Amino acid sequence: MSQEHLGEALGLTFQQVQKYERGANRISASRLFDLARVLDVPVTFFYEEMDEQTMAASPRHMVRATVDPPDAAEALMAQRETLELVRAYYRIVDPEVRKQVHELAKALGPVLPKP
Question: Cα–Cα distance between 74 and 76 in angstroms, integer?
Answer without folding.
Answer: 5
